[in-house]
Amino acid sequence: MKRFFQIFRLDQLLKNEPLKNHTTFKIGGPADLILMPGSWSDIITALQICAEEHLPYIVMGRGSNLLFRDEGFRGVVIKIDQPFKPPACSQCVLWADAGISLSALSNAALKESLTGLEFAGGIPGTLGGAVYMNAGAYGSEMKDVITEVELLTPEGHIQKIPASEMDFGYRTSRVQREKSIVLSAGIRLINGSYDDILAKMKDLGESRREKQPMDMPSAGSTFKRPLGYFAGKLIMDAGLSGAKVGGAQVSPKHCGFIVNGGGATARDVINLIEHVRETVYNKFDVLLEPEVRII
Ligand SMILES: Cc1cc2nc3c(=O)[nH]c(=O)nc-3n(C[C@H](O)[C@H](O)[C@H](O)COP(=O)(O)OP(=O)(O)OC[C@H]3O[C@@H](n4cnc5c(N)ncnc54)[C@H](O)[C@@H]3O)c2cc1C
């Protein structure tokens, strides 16, 4: 760890930092070290130090799909939640750094009157996290708009991968398998009308606020959508609306969300996830798979 303090600026490093300060769930024990890189070369250097010193590492964006355990993370968390340069637009392709938020990215598309990314404006993650997860909403997903992704392999090589080779599937991509890092991505959009794009973004934002517990800390949908069902409906029909374990609760507003009702531990959330899975399985013979990534 010492080498991080020799190489990086002090304001780029947080030692023994509670991860709850960095996740939308507001849950998670301490990380040995959090690095906030200021450039791609910072990330490459961090990977080199981790490899040489056999330090475990993990990459995170805005922590909006993560549940860190109460014990925290023994190793280095590389937090990529800021772009290193503004997005560039050429011939309907927006090219942006992984750390840009999806809301900033959709606003950049709006500014260019480009349509196709409205669905992502309300997803509270980064482009990197969205590529990793193939994030989606309202019938669209990242795979519909991504044209190419720039990846850093765990060995430190930079590769440009066309979307057709990203193995995008429902909430998955090749990044999950390879442990590579998303550096940037190109988004192909279509010329549209500024007013229509703005109206659609507002509409989708309102619909989110109406249906989802946006005022409570969470990591979004706790479970993946099982084939032929909706997780939230199954959980509601199983009589679990409002069910609690410690500070964790199945949101009565949208049963697909487990929320932190105040002081929830990761253990509370994990126990509630298990309780929900077991109850739904016993009632409906459907096994729910977590969408939230438990670290
Ligand atoms: C209120 C709320 C609403 C949500 N709505 C939706 C929704 O409609 N649709 C949806 O799909 N999701 C939704 N989510 C979940 C979440 O926002 C998305 O999964 C998002 O894409 C995660 O991005 P992130 O930057 O927060 O990633 P994080 O949560 O920080 O990380 C998620 C995973 O991505 C990896 N990762 C992050 N950045 C990189 C990178 N640069 N390179 C490689 N790997 C990386 C991490 O290692 C981790 O495994 C919602 C969450 C909340 C809290």
Task: Please explain how this structure is put together.
The protein is of the alpha+beta class. The protein is 29% helix and 26% strand. The chain has three domains: 2-79, Uridine Diphospho-n-acetylenolpyruvylglucosamine Reductase, domain 2; 88-209, 2-Layer Sandwich (Uridine Diphospho-n-acetylenolpyruvylglucosamine Reductase, domain 3), CATH 3.30.465.10; 213-294, UDP-N-acetylenolpyruvoylglucosamine reductase, C-terminal domain (Uridine Diphospho-n-acetylenolpyruvylglucosamine Reductase, domain 1). The protein has eight helices and 19 strands. Strands 6-7-13-11-12 form a five-stranded antiparallel sheet, with helices on one face. A hairpin with a 5-residue loop joins strand 11 and strand 12. The longest helix has 19 residues, at 266-284.
Topology:
Layout: H1 2-7, E1 13-18, E2 30-35, H2 40-52, E3 57-60, E4 66-67, E5 73-79, E6 88-90, E7 93-97, H3 102-111, E8 114-115, H4 127-133, E9 136-137, E10 140-141, E11 146-152, E12 158-162, H5 174-178, E13 181-188, E14 190-191, H6 194-211, E15 218-221, H7 231-237, E16 244-245, E17 248-250, E18 257-260, H8 266-284, E19 293-294
Parallel strand pairs: 2-5, 3-5, 4-19
Antiparallel strand pairs: 1-2, 6-7, 7-13, 8-14, 9-10, 11-12, 11-13, 15-18, 16-17, 17-18
